[in-house]
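Quick one - inputs below.
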Amino acid sequence: MSAPVAVRPTSPPPAGAGAPVRRRRPRTPIVVGALLGALLLSAVLSIGFGAEPLPPRVVLEVLDHRLLGGTADPTWDAIVWDIRLPRTLLAIVVGAGLAIAGTGIQTLVRNPLADPYLLGVSSGASVGATAVITTGLFAGAGLWALSLGALAGALAAALLVFGIAMAQGGLTPLRLVLTGTVLSSAFSAFASFLVFRSSDPQAAQSVLFWLLGSLSGAAWDQLLLPTATVAIVGGLLMAGCGWLDALAAGPDTAAALGVPVRVLRNVLFVLLAALVGVLVAVAGGIGFVGLILPHVARLLVGARHRAVLPVAALAGALFLVWVDVAARVAVRPTEVPLSVVTGLIGAPIFLLLLGRRTYRFGGSS
Amino acid sequence: MTHGARFPAPADDPRIPHLQARGLACDVGGRRGRRVLADVDLAVRHGEMLGVVGPNGTGKSTLLRVLAGVRPAAGGEVRVDGTPLAGRSPRDRAREIAMVGQEEQPQSDLLVGEVVALGRTPHRPPWAGGDDAERDAVLRALAAVELDHAVDRSVEQLSGGERRRVLLARGLAQEAPLLVLDEPTNHLDVRHQLALMRMIRRLERTVVVAIHDLNLAMAVCDRVAILHDGTVHADGPPEDVLTPAAIREVFGVEAVPVRHPDTGHVHLLFTTHEPADDRC
Ligand SMILES: Nc1ncnc2c1ncn2[C@@H]1O[C@H](COP(=O)(O)OP(=O)(O)OP(=O)(O)O)[C@@H](O)[C@H]1O
Ligand SMILES: [Mg+2]
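Output:
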């Protein structure tokens, strides 16, 4: 609502009500601009962190060399361009994707506690990934085997949740939450069973590391699929932001406002399942990002999707860039799984949000 | 009080009702739901204001949802200007009929203006919103419910009755010729109840309103339909329909009609010495 007031208010505020307390909200373009700037800066700085700390000057030199034809030391070039830059870019893509997915799912199921993994997609992916780790499934695909297994598991799980919810009468919020939660537990149990049965003592460790999320395998050729998925799904959600606003107000309200609720829900489910499936396949399960950042965005710019989606995406990207930095410098020379970091940072943030009386987690008060 | 249309029908044939239900059946509770209404016949002329009354749980809200096309009919059909509602796209339908439900609550974390702007959804593509023309429509709608000064406030800072009026403004901002309102006067103080109903009358729109206050219905509606036992028990001018006999039969309450000494309007006084039966 940035348009100038064209109609003068006719009635004054009721006498005795005092000056209305207005919650000051920064304008969305300003927030988006600030986040973009912070993200660019963070990306450059984050590349400097790692086993071999690099000053930003070296990072910029390499970027200048690669993009604008300057000169740079080949050693630094290899570290920055081949290893750290793809990793930072993957953090940006995955962080943005998780925040978008979280925003979408919270609208789809109308539940502020929903996170992207609610649809059972991630536990399905974990079954696939565990099967790959413990049984050597897809061994022919080499490095891609794990992602392939996770993606296959994710899509199978999404189909199952979708099928069961539809068979019971449609994707209503409650049914989706319950079906997703129940099937998630079942898939997790199955994944645990696979680990338990496995004779490989390393399996449990690898599965756990994967389940808790990591960007350690990032490489240029891994970036295309998640980037395209996040861009397409994010773009489509933005294209339906007005309808998403109506859906967030409730199914009957949305229907009264001329939104094809059933179609919108089905499309939303498919988009979110594809997005989360791809994200889980490349980065494992990263908790808290998709749960919290939509709330942070709503707190900043209000609940309209037109504002929330870009702000949440940028904030998610920014958040995950620094989470990944923390994950790789905290316990050198090993890496901490991302969920460990997001959990440790995320829980206090969530409690902080809970403490704010002006924020109601999107619910009707 | 004038009964009947307040302005000429825009349709080619004034005999075609603006909104018509024929043999309408309504279920609640999804696919294997329960039938709450069967064989409902209603016709609302252009510009007419129809009040729907009946005890709790008779299916007023259910009927209104089906009339507004928000839920599908289980049988029979709804026609708008003579053409079936079922054939229209949701968007076309929402430009024709606006509805505000009984239990709706505006989402928190939205400004009052943003809640009202939701009413513009059927008038814009799904990706657009918030231009100058929309701001005008939003402020007009808010002015009608006397809340235009609150346009930039958070809905959380409003009282229950003010929130109710904001939701009504959303329905008004939809600028549809047909307005379906489910107990719009809930939570409103006595002045706003009257002011709101009079404002709705002045809109020159066709209105279907579920209402519990029989005196208010009597005062503002052109016609009243009583729902009872799953169908329309009576339908006609308020004073003909809301008789002591009908009220006793439907609500189990004794009513005494009294003429107002100044206006001559009929008001109902209810006696409570007898416990109402507990059917609902
Ligand atoms: N989802 C549901 N599942 C099962 N029964 C339902 C459902 N919703 C409503 N009902 C039942 O349908 C009947 C009609 O409900 P409806 O809300 O239309 O009544 P109403 O006339 O609007 O009542 P009130 O005056 O209290 O608003 C009620 O008996 C109610 O118990
Ligand atoms: Mg009702």
